[in-house]
Amino acid sequence: MSSFLFKVIESTRAAALSVKAHGFRSFLTTLGIIIGVTSVIAVVSVMQGLSGSITKQFDGMGTNVLNINSFTPKKERLQGQRAKLNYRDFLEIKYKVSGISNITPTVMAMGANAVAQYKGESTTTQVTGTGSSYQMLYGVYPEQGRFFNLSDDKSRRRVAVLGPSLIDKLEIKGEVLGQYLMIGGEWFKIIGVLEKRGKIFGFDQDDYILLPYSTTHALLGGAEEPDIMISMQVDDALQIDAIKQHISNLLRRNHNLVDDQGDDFKITTAEQMLETVNNITSTTTLVLSGVVGISLLVGGIGIMNIMLVSVTERTREIGIQKALGATRVDILLQFLIEAIFLCLIGGLIGLALGYGAGALVSHLVDLPAATVPGWAIALSLGFSAGVGIVFGIIPAAKAANLDPIDALRYE
Amino acid sequence: MPNLATEVSSSLGTTKQSKNEVIIALNKIAKRYEMGGEAFYALNHLDLKIYKNDYLAIIGPSGSGKSTLMNLLGCLDYPTSGEYVLKDKNVALMDESELAGIRNLEIGFIFQSFNLLPRATALQNVMQPLIYRGIGLKERKRQAEQTLTRVGLKDRMHHIPNQLSGGQRQRVAIARALVTNPSILLADEPTGNLDSSTTAEIMELFDELHRDGQTLIVVTHEQEIAARCHRVIRLNDGELVSDTFNNTVVSGKSEVVYV
Ligand SMILES: Nc1ncnc2c1ncn2[C@@H]1O[C@H](COP(=O)(O)OP(=O)(O)OP(=O)(O)O)[C@@H](O)[C@H]1O
Ligand SMILES: [Mg+2]
Fold this sequence. Notes:
Largest sheet of chain A: 6 strands, mixed, barrel
Structural class of chain B: alpha/beta
Structural class of chain A: alpha+beta
Number of strands of chain A: 13
Strand content of chain B: 25-35%
Low-confidence stretches of chain A: none
Mean pLDDT of chain A: 85
Order of helices and strands of chain A: HHHEHHEEEHEHEHEEEEEHEHEHHHHH
Radius of gyration of chain A: 32 Å
CATH class of the domain at 53-78 and 97-251 in chain B: Alpha Beta
Number of helices of chain A: 15
Distance between the termini of chain B: 28 Å
Strand order of the largest sheet of chain A: 3-4-11-6-8-7
Strand content of chain A: 15-25%
Number of domains of chain A: 2
Radius of gyration of chain B: 18 Å
Shape of chain B: globular
Oligomer: heterodimer
Order of helices and strands of chain B: HEEEHEEHEHHHEHEHEEH
Mean pLDDT of chain B: 86
Bound molecules: adenosine-5'-triphosphate, magnesium ion
Shape of chain A: elongated
CATH superfamily of the domain at 53-78 and 97-251 in chain B: P-loop containing nucleotide triphosphate hydrolases
Helix content of chain A: 55-70%
Largest interface: A-B, 23 and 26 residues
Strand order of the largest sheet of chain B: 6-7-8-3-9-10
């Protein structure tokens, strides 16, 4: 065993005894570190759980899904103009763009708060009209019954597929399939219930009704052409940019846009959305790191302060140790390791508290389960140890440099 | 008889008495303090030789420099000038970490105020100097237990200092000084805080250590203690004013008489 390793082990033993001897004070000393690590782990664990579940949702979608929405620049919006995508745009893309499949039009029927009624129960929910290819595109599966098919869509059948929450909201009893709902004054037959997706930020992901696109279109009447969203899958991911370009040209021509006019639509990929989400997560993490950095700094100063007091208090002990043959290095290591030890204990307590707080928060606001990634554990413990070294070195050096005879005489 | 010291060193410094190995030699050792701009010598260019198995008492009035001398001998303090040779090594030239090594390997120091680590048990106190020697936990424990048993504290090993009487504390301190098998045991008024019967016990322990071959130096104010020692030096104002061997003449050696 190398003599340095021996010294480290002995110093750690001494540090453990000393920390134990001053239990409550040690706890107060590390409070800064505990709070710092707790807050970082709590937020990171919540963020990780969240972004993990979002990533999973996007995964279901497939990363080579393209979405096209209408887009009105702010200036025009202020002038009361609104850009639109319509069914003609959909057909144009469907028949002129090659290399895509499962192209689906989606239209919001009656806004986000449509009223659905069932045997005297009534509730508001999101009613969306969409193509039968929706199922393939987003990989959703019915738990009961079936999704609507091409013929439902073509013949404008009054059929509906429900999100599972509606069964409870409308208190539908017994066999769900085959029963009728009233939406927008029309009766719809329930033909399927989709899988449960759970809640995010308290928002129920299962509170919706899907209707066939053409049925919805007819329901809305000819009063005003609705604005739709067009989604599709790109067969070859390498072709995404070319296809986006192709669609863009097509839509610009359709909408009679001239050279210096901006697009009145936006083409986004699932990957882009995922990136946006990840950007938000990492920005939050970055801001947080700053906060944590400051709290660890404050915690470190707390540690230094107490260690300096402790060195003064133990001056005589240091003198005794030196009289017994302790070298500068022995004393330096002893106090440095004591500081690191304190910080690491603070870090570990913070880790446990942070995870607990994260799990609690996730539970309370219906977020996916909090997870603590390995890097966060390594980083917070590494940081704690670093704080111990940086802020422990001055008190340790002060102790090590004490003159044995002066230290022994210290009253 | 101020020149006795020189006589001793000249008569014993020669090799003819090979039995009396010199452990410590001080040459013109001085310790100067500056107080209020005025220089004053706590030790005034002192010469002294200490031999193996010496049982030496240092006496003298308060402020005469006894503790100053002990601290120098124990490598706790630096001389202002002069030479300190400990087992053929010139200690005065050593740096801090070499001195720490000397304190650990060659010297056992016993203080008037015991100077035990307050939060450590008797056993842990005695184990402490062995840590700086790189001895593992098990062996440290074994040696410390052995030494505590030797000073009669077998059943007090797990007490912390404030659960022990003064005499017991000083025994722990003695065990701690002995556990490293030092070349020399330095005791600065070891019984100064103890009553007379405890003092007698401690002195019996010292006698025994001396019989076992230990070299001891004891600073004392008490005449009885000085009388037990085999050699007595007297300091006054930082100068060595006498150096006598009890019950014998200067040229003799104490153990010749007592063994
Ligand atoms: N750090 C110091 N600074 C200044 N003067 C000092 C210092 N240490 C000791 N002295 C002086 O040196 C002289 C010798 O002190 P020392 O402690 O050696 O005396 P002593 O013989 O041990 O006395 P006592 O029997 O009372 O213990 C004293 O006059 C003391 O005041
Ligand atoms: Mg003294």
